[in-house]
Amino acid sequence: MSASEVQRSPSRMDVASTSARSFAPTRALRPKAKLLPEHARGHNRSLVLQTLYRSGPCSRADIARTTGLTRVTVSDLVAELIADGLLEELGQREESRPGKPATLLDLRRDAFVILGLDLSEHSGFSGAVLDLDGRLLAREEVALEGSTGDAAIERVLTLVARLVEHAGPTPILGLGVGSPGVVDLGGVVLSAPNLGWTGVPLQETLHDRFGVPVVVANDANAAILAEHGFGGASADAMLIKIGHGVGAGLLLDGRPMYGSRFAAGEIGHVVVGTDGGDVCACGKRGCLETWLSIPRLERALTGAPAEARDRILEQAGERLGIALAPVVGALDLGEVILAGPTGLLDGPLAAAALETIRSRTMSEFHGDLSLRMSTLGQDIVLRGAAVMVLSGQLGVS
Length: 397
What we know:
The protein has 14 helices and 16 strands. By secondary structure, it is an alpha/beta fold. It starts with a helix and ends with a helix.
């Protein structure tokens, strides 16, 4: 299917007319209660969808009880959502008690597909077609081969075109993108040095080319959303994404945090310790990335004797703990998640990081802090991209 065909694709809801709705940092990912009348309809629509998305088949009465909405409101919203092709009636529930059995409803999980991109790896870009539950239906990759600037953008466009072909006739709910660097809420990549991008309007470029809603965020921010949506992360959690660089995504009370300059979580260039260290690409000495990035760890471990390997990993974990302890203490986080190669990060590195955090914070408050590996593997950014689209277009997570 060509880009022009995407733009002409019929849809049961208007998902291709504008870029993705604002993925606002002030909005909780999962609506939990009814809202004031002036904001109510859109919020309550999301509330119904959220209930079915997480709970599965329910009757109209079940939804009313769960959400606190009136049965009349629920019936009106359900009728609208059925007309939009998002809900379907499954038939009557088997009842043991007298009376007319209730009709069960569920989200039409095959009604749309989501396109997700991960631009964070230095060797190439990856993309996937996902269903509404975040399952990968098809995957594509494009080698970067050192491309930067406009050439790298062309690789992105090529990748999306391939994913559109995989989607076929199924309407596309939206396109989510996890990009390295600093990304503002309008999907402009303010700075991604490894790709040679400065002020690149990636969200607008992709929307103009493919005519579907687009949301672009930093890759670590996408990753923490994946953990919250599909990995069971708590509402107050931090994810550290370790690869070619080091970045973090942060949730507070279920809300993604971006910072005043959209650079929250850029911890890779925080200097850890006062004992110097290697010179970083940014020009400083002893940044966290010089201890913890995967290329640095692999170089340090190559040829190292077996008895030295654990100490190298422990030192990297200690530096991570030094960087994280003030954050954990200041924000009272209950969970820290590591995303990256399990063989390097799990074990001595993770144990040293947790011990360092605990030794540098008040044990009565942070003694039960959880530090764990992500369970979502290499697809974490792709699945986080799906969460961004689900939240922006349907208000669910």
